[in-house]
Design goal:
flat, four-stranded mixed beta sheet, alpha/beta, 23 helices, single chain
Length: 663
């Protein structure tokens, strides 16, 4: 369909161009007496004369911002050209032996569809940069340019390096917000871009959705704009859609606890963006760089958790299910254990709350203030006693202290640890019987040592399980046996011999196992040394694979230790990789637990030293002069000081630490 600018040409010019286009058949170039307008291009060069060019001598350009020509509208233009001809010349530049289109490609294709052999054109000598600018300018000044074509033109202009947002504002008279919003249309996913091109959604709706990343756009499309979606937004107002999108997908910075100093001036902060000025009218601010925001939040959570653990090594790092996976993965990679709690956060207790001291200016009389001071003193005494009792129970293991890592912060919570009743088998004169024994909760030190032992078991459980898989898939050599392998073999045989056979050999053995089959024994006398070596190794391989435990085991177990040594002798490279993989994890965990153990020991030593000093002070007779009585009513006792935490002795050597852990 022709534009109003094209229809404003004079009838005289139309007749001359149409007549020249239909009468000239042979020449490639024919100059017309009447020059056409420059179509508003940015270059202010003298307008060249209009020439008739052979369509076969013209090629398309690669920089034309208009790429999508709808067949139906192109056909309408072709029908119009058949009737009245090409009303507005295209612009070309010389290239090789022909010409390259600068702008007017749509008219070129419509003329070809209409059957024309020649088309009126302005021939201009332009560089690549000048031709690209001319194409962008001409297309942006057309009235029928689509929003996405306009967006592509702006993007092309910026990518060329010859324009900035500010220069485009001055060149086309558009506001900065308008150009930026158009540029966002280049980020639309295909499904929404097609709906915009078909005018199924408005450019305003598309612009609001384009502010968000591709994953959000895809979700919005599937839930609110696709065929058969659950809740369509196609008829919703633009402002309402903008608000829904912001509330759902734009994370507000005030939700997070990390330091936001850098965020105040960051261009990803919506408070600093002109695109979100309407959504942020109430002062809210969101972050468009989700990866940066989540990274800062993760770093904050890890730092807070480790600070709390360092301040009190009795603390257990925990989660109630809403901790970011990346935080848990980071802490576990560092060797820390995160306990998953069974209940929601509010189920667990908080620390006693310190009462607030009364202020004299808040009371109308001294009597009322004096009463308030007495109430405060009583509340402070209760708080002090509750805090002391809580600290004692945590130290004794009757209360477990958690640092619960949430989505945005880390909070301290407490849980009572109930006593357990266990069945224990006892044997007396009346025979064996079962009794129930009440087990006192383990202290934090005992819990840490148990956890270290369990971590060691986990390490060798994994090693054993993977080693068995290695044995199932491995082949052994027939090279001479080592002394260690001989010892392993005979150990394995003894393990599998019955008691009567062991007694015949002069060996007392308590475990009962089946003997070797007679046929295999007879065949064994006919084996070559190579066959015997291979058979012994196969026997050892099967023995370790079937006998070595893969639960509650450590390298202190003979089977486990020998299995690892056998693997070192026969599959050294694979064995080293396998063991080092799990030993590295154990060492990281052991290091972190050792730090807690050392800190806890230091605190216990400091506490014992303080108690001994108090006992020494009580044993000294009080012969000091009496002090004057303090004035009542006005003196408010100071809150109790925080418990003294003395860091672990930095001079403590690693050997001393290992010995204390083993003890």
């Amino acid at each position: 369909m022709q534009t109003s600018k094209e229809e404003s040409k004079t009838k005289k010019s139309r007749a001359k161009v149409s007549k020249a286009a239909t009468s000239k058949q042979n020449p490639d170039v024919q100059e017309l007496p009447q020059a056409a307008s420059n179509s508003g291009t940015a270059e202010q060069q003298p307008t060249p004369a209009v020439e008739l060019l052979d369509l076969n001598k013209i090629v398309s350009s690669t920089y034309n911002p208009r790429k999508d020509f709808r067949p139906e509208t192109l056909q309408e233009l072709a029908d119009s050209i058949r009737q009245v001809g090409v009303l507005q010349p295209i612009c070309v530049r010389p290239k090789d032996e022909g010409f390259e289109i600068v702008y007017g490609e749509r008219r070129y294709w419509a003329a070809a569809m209409a059957g024309l052999k020649f088309i009126p054109a302005l021939v201009r000598k332009l560089s690549d940069a000048e031709a690209e600018d001319a194409a962008i300018t001409e297309n942006l000044q057309r009235e029928d340019v689509t929003p996405r074509e306009e967006a592509a033109a702006y993007k092309r202009a910026l990518e060329s390096g010859r324009h900035t947002i500010e220069s485009l504002v001055g060149k086309f008279g558009k506001s900065e917000a308008y150009i930026r919003s158009r540029l966002k249309l280049c980020d639309l996913i295909d499904a929404l871009a097609e709906q915009l091109d078909r005018e199924e959604i408005s450019v305003g709706v598309a612009t609001e959705i384009a502010k968000y990343d591709a994953a959000v756009q895809q979700e919005v499309y599937e839930e609110h704009f696709s065929d058969g979606c659950r809740l369509s937004w196609k008829n919703a107002r633009i402002r309402e859609i903008a608000r829904r999108l912001y509330d759902r997908y734009m994370t507000r910075l005030d939700t997070y606890r990390f330091d936001k100093t850098e965020c105040h001036s960051c261009h990803h902060n919506t408070a600093n963006q002109i695109l979100f000025k309407d959504e942020c009218a109430d002062g809210c601010a969101g972050c468009q760089n989700r990866s940066c925001m989540m990274r800062k939040n993760d770093e904050y959570l890890v730092q807070q958790a480790l600070q709390l653990l360092k301040a009190d090594p009795r603390t257990v790092l925990a989660t109630v299910g809403d901790t970011p996976d990346s935080v848990i993965e980071h802490l576990e990679e560092e060797g820390y254990r995160i306990q998953e709690l069974d209940y929601y956060l509010d189920y667990y207790d908080t620390a006693p709350e310190m009462p607030e001291a009364p202020q004299a200016e808040c009371y109308s009389s001294e009597e009322n203030y004096a009463e308030a001071v007495k109430r405060y003193e009583a509340a402070l005494a209760r708080f002090t006693e509750q805090t002391r009792q809580l600290e004692f129970d945590v130290t004794e293991g009757r209360v477990r202290k958690y640092a619960v890592i949430g989505m945005f912060d880390v909070e301290i919570r407490y849980e009572d640890v109930p006593e357990e009743e266990r069945e224990v088998a006892v044997e007396d004169a009346a025979g064996e019987r079962t009794v129930y024994v009440t087990m006192v909760p383990a202290s934090p030190m005992e819990s840490l040592l148990r956890q270290d032992h369990r971590n060691r078991q986990l390490c060798y459980e994994h090693i054993t399980a993977d080693m068995k898989a290695l044995f199932r898939e491995s082949k052994v050599s027939g090279s001479p046996l080592t002394e260690e392998e001989h010892q392993m073999f005979y150990y394995a045989v003894i393990r599998h011999m019955a008691d009567d056979r062991l007694r015949q050999c002069g060996i007392e053995h308590k475990n009962q196992w089946r003997v070797t089959e007679e046929e295999r024994f007879a065949a064994a006398g006919q084996l070559t040394p190579e066959q015997r070596a291979a058979m012994i190794r196969l026997f050892l391989l099967d023995f370790f694979r079937t006998t070595a435990r893969d639960y509650n085991c450590t390298d202190e177990e003979v089977d486990t230790r020998l299995m690892c040594r056998f693997a070192d002798l026969n599959f050294e490279a694979q064995s080293r990789i396998l063991q080092e993989k799990y030993l590295a994890t154990y060492e990281r965990r052991r290091t972190k637990l050792q730090e807690q153990i050392d800190d806890l020991k230091a605190q216990e030593e400091a506490r014992a030293l303080a108690e001994s000093r108090e006992l020494d002070a009580e044993s000294i007779p009080e012969e000091l002069p009496e002090e004057p009585e303090a004035t009542p009513d006005t003196e408010i006792p100071a809150p109790p000081a925080e418990p003294l935490i003395i860091p672990a002795d930095p001079e403590l050597g690693p050997n001393e630490t290992a010995e204390s852990l083993a003890a």
